């Protein structure tokens, strides 16, 4: 069989630990035998980030801007323990944070549902996609400790030097303060990314903030969403038979729990951080979740939602067998290949991505799965396999689907 040809390279961002091992296995077993894989390779493994003073992360994000589609492996965000382990020059920042800051954009995370794994909330029969605003708020905060007796103020100096001043608090004891910001342009592109994604998926958008308490900050999010919806999307949503729904965040969580799923839940940065882990856990596993960062100018970065699975990596290094779930990493590749196929008009590549996803789901539904899913699955004929044997089982089904 002739290999599928690509036109434009994918930006490939390699990563760390067990996911780096899986990355190579996926390429060897499921991609390069079928595709003449074109990538521009960036090694975001911690060793190379340290060697390049983290320049490689910036370069990979800029390459993503140039080519439009990237696929990223999970990477270590260094903490104190990693300093001696990797002999680091500095405690480098989270690569995801760096990439998100350069691309701006919104992260969409959707659970991958399979038969045999019932969500902890059994009424969630359809996936809930979390759309996380990937800019600002507490992630770009400035904070201080304030000793007793200090007066904390919020000051904004406009371009003509005029100051607006508000007292935050007069501290009678030691305390803390935090300054956060967001930008109207970023909130607007967050709104547009959610509305476009909704039209693409034919699903409703829910959005929630705490605008009753935060009458300027959160209220601005609410107002920008409403204005963009009314002016640019209302007619398109009505034609597609979908809705935009705004409510308070506390009301939203109550409704989410009672819902059947099947919508996009737009979340501010922090809400999205927390809710995506809750939703992933409730649907079964972080390893059964797709994740894509969509920038306002239509740039896509696909990744797995989980980390580098450190514990399995240490087992792997000792020569012990691992049973690590590769589904999220695999779906990062299929998402990126399908998008490349769409942009370059390569139906064969898109079909390959569809078949590979189908083969993966069928493998699990046939009872062949890694240890994490084995613990959750209610299938009677289930069988636990190791990391590589799972990929080989997917390959058997892929061969059948590709004919
Ligand atoms: P983790 O996601 O690697 O692991 C959390 C737990 O989930 C562990 O018990 C792990 O065994 C299990 N798990 C996660 N993915 C799994 C999979 N595919 N198959 C089977 N089990 C799986 O997160 P962590 O342990 O908090 O972090 C490990 C490293 O990953 C850290 O250095 C952290 O900085 C990094 N990290 C990276 C990303 C990213 O690049 N997107 C995200 C989170 C954490």
TrEMBL record:
How is its cofactor bound, per UniProt?
A: Binds 1 Mg(2+) or Mn(2+) ion per subunit.
Chain sites annotated for binding Mn(2+) = 250, 273
Which BP terms does GO give this entry? Answer: isocitrate metabolic process; tricarboxylic acid cycle
Could you tell me the superkingdom of the organism this chain comes from? Bacteria
Secretion signal: which residues?
Answer: none
Query: According to its UniProt record, which cofactors does this protein need?
Result: Mg(2+); Mn(2+)
Q: Which PROSITE patterns does the entry mention? A: IDH_IMDH (PS00470)
Chain sites annotated for binding D-threo-isocitrate: 77, 94-100, 109, 132
- The answer on whether this UniProt entry bears the keyword Metal-binding reads yes
* Catalysed conversion reaction: D-threo-isocitrate + NADP(+) = 2-oxoglutarate + CO2 + NADPH
Pfam families to which the protein is assigned, alphabetical? Iso_dh
Which InterPro entries does its entry note? IsoCit/isopropylmalate_DH_CS, Isocitrate_DH_NADP, IsoPropMal-DH-like_dom
Tell me which SMART domains the record gives.
Iso_dh
Keyword line = Magnesium, Manganese, Metal-binding, NADP, Oxidoreductase, Tricarboxylic acid cycle
What residues does the record give for site: Critical for catalysis?
139, 210
Q: Name one GO molecular function term.
A: magnesium ion binding
Question: EC annotation?
Answer: 1.1.1.42
Family of this protein: Belongs to the isocitrate and isopropylmalate dehydrogenases family.
Name the chain's protein. Isocitrate dehydrogenase [NADP]
Tell me what organism the protein belongs to. Hominimerdicola aceti
């Amino acid at each position: 069989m002739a290999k599928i040809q690509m036109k434009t390279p994918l930006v490939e961002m390699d990563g760390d630990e067990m996911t780096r091992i899986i990355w190579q296995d996926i390429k060897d077993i499921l991609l390069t035998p079928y595709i003449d894989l074109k990538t521009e390779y960036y090694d975001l493994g911690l060793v190379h980030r340290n060697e390049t003073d983290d320049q490689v992360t910036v370069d990979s994000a800029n390459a993503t801007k140039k080519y439009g589609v990237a696929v990223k492996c999970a990477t270590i965000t260094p903490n104190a323990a990693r300093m001696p382990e990797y002999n680091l020059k500095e405690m480098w920042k989270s690569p995801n944070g760096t990439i998100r800051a350069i691309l701006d954009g919104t992260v969409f995370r959707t659970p991958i549902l399979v038969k045999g794994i019932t969500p902890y909330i059994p009424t969630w029969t359809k996936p809930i996609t979390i759309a996380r605003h990937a800019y600002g708020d507490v992630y770009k905060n400035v904070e201080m400790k304030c000793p007793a007796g200090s007066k904390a103020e919020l000051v904004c100096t406009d371009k003509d030097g005029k100051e607006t001043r508000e007292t935050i608090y007069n501290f009678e004891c030691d305390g803390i303060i935090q300054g956060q910001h967001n930008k109207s342009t970023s909130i607007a592109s967050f709104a547009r990314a959610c509305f476009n994604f909704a039209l693409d998926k034919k699903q409703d958008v829910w959005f929630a903030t705490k605008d009753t308490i935060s009458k300027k900050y959160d209220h601005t999010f609410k107002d920008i969403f409403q204005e963009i919806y009314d002016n640019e999307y209302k007619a398109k949503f009505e034609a597609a038979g979908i809705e935009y729904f705004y409510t308070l965040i506390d009301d939203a969580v109550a409704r989410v729990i009672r819902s059947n799923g099947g919508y996009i839940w737009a979340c501010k940065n922090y809400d999205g951080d927390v809710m995506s882990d809750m939703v992933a856990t409730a649907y079964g596993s972080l390893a059964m979740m797709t994740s894509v960062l969509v920038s306002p100018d239509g740039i896509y970065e696909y990744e797995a939602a989980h980390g580098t699975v450190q514990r399995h990596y240490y087992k792997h290094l000792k020569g012990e067998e691992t049973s690590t779930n590769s589904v999220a990493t695999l779906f990062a590749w299929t998402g990126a290949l399908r998008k490349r196929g769409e942009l370059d008009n390569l139906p064969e590549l898109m079909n390959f991505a569809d078949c590979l996803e189908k083969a993966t789901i069928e493998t699990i539904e046939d009872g062949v799965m890694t240890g994490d899913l084995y613990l959750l699955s209610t299938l009677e004929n289930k069988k636990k396999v190791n990391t590589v044997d799972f990929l080989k089982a997917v390959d058997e089904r892929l061969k059948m689907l590709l004919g």
